[in-house]
Amino acid sequence: MVKNEKIFTKYKSKGADYHWRQINKRNIFDFNAHRIGSYQIMCERILKFTKIHTTSPELRIIDFGCGDGVLLFMLKRELEKDGKNVSVFGVDSSPESIAVAQKKNPGGIFRCNSVYSAGFQDDIFDIAVSSDVIEHVDDPNKMIDEMIRVTKKAGFIAISTPVKFSETPLDNLHFQEFFPGEFSRLFETKDLKTVDYIQSHPLFYTLLYGRPINLFVKKIKIFKYLLNILAGYFGNNVFLQTRPQSKNDLMSYQSIFLKK
Q1: Of 26, 90, 161, 176, which sits with the fewest C-beta atoms within 10 Å of its C-beta?
Q2: Which residues of 62-99 are buried (b: 16+ CB within 10 A; e: fewer)?
Q3: What is the pLDDT along the chain (260 residues), one digit of tens a residue?
Q4: 232 CB burial (10 A radius; 0-12, 13-18, 19+)
Q5: What strands, in cross-sheet order, belong to the sheet with 85-91?
Q6: Domains of the chain, first to last
């Protein structure tokens, strides 16, 4: 590990399976509309890509910084609905989360490795993904190069991360964040073709989601629970919005989709 690398502590503080609790629509307190929005956007774009560019029914997918394996579970489920036979692989530095990922994704292969050295052969994956990880690492270029290395020629790479809004990262577990231009430039010198770049998650709702209010002498994130109900029970997730409603609207999340 690079000496300046941020140590991701949420699996120890929130529980090794906390992302699984965040996709449980029946519990508005644990459900996370913001998180599920980012996963759904990635799943939709990857499904679209495979329909257009992939003829083989067999797909191998690797998740860099897979955590407890939720994104891989969702990708496998959606792609198998489309008739694909999907094998999932993941790397993460947290042994606690890797254990959960393995349990929740029977048959998958998960390794407790760095995103700089995944421990897999060259050119063996059809799709490489990474969600909310690149902002935690000290050397994003090294991570991207490793994703390229293990992806097949004509394979697909998808990376998502928050949009930068301040000089110092808003999350103290983030090593660095990226303005949209900075994020896109990370890939300019790579042997990759940008298929799509998306901004999503309106900033207004993101800030509202995390804002607590005083209620009965207690701070409660009432807006989070209301937006969770809207998304979980009524199917209207405001974080799935990918286009500003006006030129003054700002989006808080970005995803890039590339072909090798």
Answers
A1: 26
A2: bbbbbbbbbbbbbbbebbeeeebebebbbbbbbebbbb
A3: 444 566 667 777 788 899 999 999 999 999 999 999 999 999 999 999 999 888 889 999 999 999 999 999 999 999 999 999 999 999 999 999 999 999 999 999 999 999 999 999 999 999 999 999 999 999 999 999 999 999 999 999 999 999 998 777 667 778 899 999 999 999 999 999 999 999 999 999 999 999 988 877 788 899 999 999 999 999 999 999 997 666 678 999 999 999 99
A4: buried
A5: 109-111, 85-91, 58-64, 125-131, 151-162, 251-259, 193-202
A6: 44-201+252-259 (3.40.50.150)
Looking at the chain, how many residues does it have?
260
